[in-house]
Amino acid sequence: MPDEPQWPTEDDDAGSAAAASEPTVQVSRPSVDQPTMRFPLAAILSAPSTQEPLRSSPVRSVPNGVGAGHSASGVPTTGSGGSGGPSGGSAGGKSHTAIGPEVGQPRATPTRIEPKNDQTRVVPRPEQKTTELSVPNAKTARVDQLPNSEPSWFDKTSRPDQQPARPEQRQPRPEQHRPEQTKRVDQLQHQEPPRQEQQRPVPPPPPARQEPQPVRQDLPVTGYEEEPEDRLATDDEPRKGRRSLVVVLSLLVVAALAGATIYAVEEFGGTKAIETRPPAAPANVQPLVKAVTAGAPAPTPAGVAQALAGPAANGVLGTLTGSVVDPASGAALWQQGDTTPATPASSLKILTAAAALLSLEKTDQLSTKVVQGAEPGTVVIVGGGDPTISGAPGKSVYPGAATLDDLVNQVKAKGPVTKVQFDLSRYTGEALGPQWETADIAGGSVAPIVPFMLDGGRVDQSNVNGTRTGSPGQAAADAFAQRVGASGATAGAAPAGAQVLGEIKSAPVEQLVDNMMQISDNVLTEAIAREIAIKTGNEASFAGGVKAVRDVLTKNGFDLTTANFVDGSGLSASNKIPAKLLTEVLTAAAKPTLDDARTAKLRPLLTALPVAGGSGTLAGRYGGTAAPGKGWVRAKTGTLTGVNALAGMVVDVDGRVLVFSFMSASSRNPETEVRPALDVMAAALRGCGCS
Questions:
Q1: 425 given a catalytic annotation
Q2: Where in the sequence does UniProt note compositional bias of the Gly residues kind (predicted)?
Q3: How many domains does the chain have?
């Protein structure tokens, strides 16, 4: 063979026409004036033999003696025997058949590669012809003219069970990682080969004819998915490469963490950033409810008059009387018929509550007892004036109420009961107040006032305004008898000094007052009025309760000269009191200091008032134009036919407490017109800025 490269002629590619459509592997050359050659991808992806693991290199030296159909590197040498993949061709060149003869042609002649000077040529074995590669019609080159480069990344030592390669091919070759990007030969640049990793030591080869080590060209395979190098290692090869990779990755992770730590320390404050610092001082939390004092700007009569001018002139209010007072100074800021008696409706409960707080101990409780009757097996229920006893625990509208079941269990523990009696002698006089209407019983406003009943006489224990019974004492006694196993209950008197078999107690008086004001409960109010009467030595009746309330308030300095009322709850339409009396009682409760002895006792009256838009009878009010008063107004409502009232307190925008009372006599719709108009008046006091 001549020393100079031999270029194939046009006829050399004649046999490749049949494989022109096969996917090919492109081999790139180092410069644009040298040819490009491509190998069929189908040949490379053919199934591996049982003699050697699959490798992805398309070109290897072929040792003599390798069986037909495969080269030493696993590259097929028979046609397109493997299944083809997607085309991996690039621009330029044309597709060719696999390396080797077509089906039916003679087997390809083995060759070897020899370097000569700065060139490499393919020379045949003795008495064999040179095998040339099928290349395009353009400029082409043989493998022996490819430029020097580093060995392929997948050059591995053959397994010992394969045929031995030639001695010159068993020399250790440096392992090289597969290039990350594929380039054609004509795009490669001459550069210094990178530093190779340390070679794995191998035993010295047996004596043989030494031939120059072939220069290998790493031929990238396009369209072939990369795999980790350790997956291509042979079974008998040590795991050094894998261990090295793990060590390198571990060192990289450690270095990255160290670098990140140094960067964070330097970037975010140096060594101070990692110092332990003391916790920050506690936040200065401001309470949601702010205390009001007399130090806020004082309102003036002119300012209040201007604020109420529009709301008070609303025609839906009919005849309006009222009063506004500054409790800090006692000054009257606004009056309109404030000394003229008018129907207060349920706002009269302010007077009963004030009398109870001034005369009764806040911790006093109402006691209901069961004593031994005159006959064996007979028990007598002694009504103690507690209308809040719960007949169905969990459904009571009275917080902290005692339960009938508790009383029953105490009595049953003492022995069997065959007969039940109930004693209602604690109260005297009529059970219904003057000018009360029996229709109010079914309407849920009231029940006959007796000293023993369940749930204020309600049929439905959980319905505040539900229907009440006309005989609450009998109904309660029957419920007790049924639960202790007796046939029924009858009225009777308790023997003097009889043994007590059971006793239950109500919530404290202070809580009872709060509850009666929140839900405007008429029955509970009348019961408290009778307790005031008993405490002050008056009879426990409507008249006795009214007299006791008047006496207690008069004793404490309130002027009731023009006040005339016949019950304690305000249910009677004949009740008449001036608006000024209500504001005087509220002023005493709202004074900023405790210099007045009445103030400390009356303070719970303020917290017992329903909150606008929040609780009690004001929970569903203060919408629309009255919304600014929501949460700031606390007041007792009053409603009768043609009568509406509102009396309470408000904190204005300057932080000053104002007390007020408004009473309206109007035929207009109370729910949609009169009550909303009264709410607007109180809300105007909230936003007046009256200084």
A1: no
A2: 79-92
A3: 4
Kindly state whether residue 259 falls inside one of the protein's structural domains.
yes
Q: Cα angle vertex 245, ends 244, 251, to 5°?
A: 90
What are the φ and ψ backbone dihedral angles of 625, each rounded to 5 degrees? -70, -15
Any bridge partners for residue 640, and if so which? 643
In a domain, 411, yes or no: yes
Q: Is residue 195 part of a domain?
A: yes
Which residue among 61, 80, 346, 541 is the active-site one? 346
Give whole-number Cα distances, 86 to 222, 518, 662, in Å: 10, 85, 94
User: Are residue 70 and residue 207 in the same domain, yes or no?
Assistant: yes
Shared-domain flag, residues 485 and 588: no
CATH number of the domain where residue 643 is located: 3.40.710.10
Pair 39, 133 in one domain: yes
As a whole number of angstroms, the distance between CA 416 and CA 412 comes to 6
SS3 category, 307: helix
Neighbours of 14 (CB within 10 A): 9
CA separation, residue 617 to residues 49, 263, 317, 348, 613 (Å): 95, 65, 20, 15, 9
pLDDT averaged over 10-residue windows placed end to end, the chain, 691 residues: 44 41 45 44 42 40 40 39 40 40 46 51 49 46 48 45 44 46 46 47 50 45 38 44 68 72 56 62 63 78 95 97 95 96 97 98 96 95 98 92 97 95 97 93 96 97 94 97 94 95 97 97 98 97 98 97 97 97 97 92 96 96 95 96 97 93 97 97 92 77
Which single residue is written with the structure tokens 């936003």?
A: 687
CA distances from 550 to 351, 358, 432, 587 (A): 8, 12, 20, 18
Q: At 622, list the tokens.
A: 């203060």
Inside any domain, residue 269? yes
Instruction: Return the amino acid letter for 650.
Output: V
Backbone angles phi, psi at 100, to 5 degrees: 120, 175
Residue 555 and residue 671 share a domain: yes
Residue in 506, 520, 541, 572 annotated catalytic = 520
Q: Are residues 141 and 257 in the same domain?
A: no
346 flagged as catalytic = yes
User: Do 342 and 383 have their domain in common?
Assistant: no
User: Of the candidates 488, 507, 526, which is a domain's last residue?
Assistant: 507
Q: Give the span between the Cα atoms of 268 and 260, in whole angstroms.
A: 12
Nearest alpha-carbon partner for 229 in 217, 245, 218: 245
Assess whether 480 and 605 both reside in one domain.
Answer: no
CB–CB of 368/383 below 8 Å? yes
Residue 655 forms beta bridges with which residues? none
Range of the domain at 494: 367-507
Tell me which of 61, 323, 349, 601 is the catalytic residue. Answer: 349
| Same-domain check for residues 13 and 52 | yes
Determine contact, residues 631/667, Cβ cutoff 8 Å.
no
